[in-house]
Amino acid sequence: MSVDRLTKYYGDFAAVDGISFEIPAGQVVAVLGPNGAGKTTTLEILEGFADATTGQVSVLGKDPRRGGRAWRSRIGLVLQSTSLETEPTVAELLTLFARLYPNPRPIREVLELIDLTAEAKVRIGTLSGGQQRRVDLGLAMIGNPELLFLDEPTTGLDPEARRRCWASIERLNGSGTTILLTTHYLDEADKLADRVLVLSAGRLVADMTPTAMRASSGVSFVRLPLP
Ligand code: ATP
């Protein structure tokens, strides 16, 4: 994936202000930044849901706005807020989504990856917030995507629920999936990412390893994790 001098303007306001980066296949990259930094806007452009104002973007070899169906089926998405159906069971919803893809992962494998094997027959509306977020992850991975976009996958979850989401994300990356996630949390970027892109007011202010990030005082504006 490559992003070259990307901008997104709303009127005179630059939500994304000339950012460039590359993500090789297989990496986990975290886009870290406070509210309003431009994380979701960047993701929406990469996902093909929004137009860039200027700049070049290539995702799995294509311009996201011209990607088409086959391209889209190679990508999994977890949006910022969950909008799951509440009536079906976990297994029923996964089965329904599996039918949308040419080569879906076996449901059993997805349940293991998201650590919900024991909850397969539980209705989604009765799951905890963290379990529902892992269902979101399961739906994103059921089509066997090469690339996953996760928009704030653990915001609002308690520490244990966050750890279990992280474990699912790590297992997924272990199976070869490239992952781009956005987060407010230093600890999440540190735990999951090979590389961290720090956004502030639409600008890319750092592109570094988690180790370098820990040593840096320049990212102290980032909100601390929930207790
Ligand atoms: P958060 O962590 O709160 O989700 P973010 O880093 O994802 O923040 P964005 O949602 O990308 O930030 O927003 C970046 C900036 O662009 C914000 O100032 C936001 O108010 C502005 N913005 C986003 N969408 C629009 C829009 N449709 N019209 C005008 N301004 C917008």
Instruction: Report the radius of gyration as a whole number of Å.
Output: 17 Å
Q: How would the global form be characterised?
A: globular
Distance N to C terminus: 35 Å
How much of the residues is beta strand, in percent?
A: 15-25%
Our count of helices gives 8
Any ligands, ions or cofactors bound here, and which? adenosine-5'-triphosphate
Instruction: Please tell me the overall pLDDT.
Output: 91
| Biggest pleated-sheet summary | 6 strands, mixed
Structural category is alpha/beta
Helical percent range?
25-40%
Main β-sheet, spatial strand arrangement? 5-6-7-3-8-9
Give the number of DSSP strands: 9
**H/E element order:** EEEHEHEHHHEHEHEEH
Low-pLDDT runs of 5+ residues are 223-227
Keywords: Antibiotic resistance, ATP-binding, Nucleotide-binding, Transport
Organism: Kribbella jiaozuonensis
GO cellular component, one term: plasma membrane
GO molecular function: ATP binding; ATP hydrolysis activity
Structure description:
The chain is of the alpha/beta class and 227 residues long. Helices cover 32% and strands 25% of the residues. The protein has eight helices and nine strands. Strands 5-6-7-3-8-9 form a six-stranded mixed β-sheet, sandwiched between helices. Helix 5 runs parallel beside helix 6. The longest helix has 16 residues. The C terminus is likely disordered. Adenosine-5'-triphosphate (ATP) binds next to helix 1. It comes from Kribbella jiaozuonensis. GO terms for molecular function: ATP binding; ATP hydrolysis activity. It is a peripheral membrane protein.
